[in-house]
Biotin carboxylation domain-containing protein
Amino acid sequence: GRNRAEAIARGRRAAQDYVILGVTTNLAYLDTILDHPKFRSGDVSTGFLAEEADELNQDRDPATTDILAAATVLSDARLVKALENVPEIYRLMGNWRN
């Protein structure tokens, strides 16, 4: 972004819009950090995460996150269009595990 506020807004939008299914991510945590008043104002140090751990680590309902992710996937026509263009080799792989 051209400034801190724009960079934070873009980062939050990316964290909120990014969809990864099948694995747990820290995207909600990153969004919480980006939305924290001290982070937004630039009033942070290398101890920020430890100092604000109680607030940043508040329990989130995983079911809500899953529902929102599913709703995003189902409603995003761009994603549906992108999935039409997935190379055949990835479709043939199926649900593989690492």
Remarks:
- DSSP finds eight helices and no strands in the chain.
- Helices lie at 4-17, 27-35, 37-41, 48-51, 53-56, 62-75, 77-84, 88-93.
- Residues 19 and 72 are 8 Å apart (CA to CA).
- The chain has one domain: 4-92.
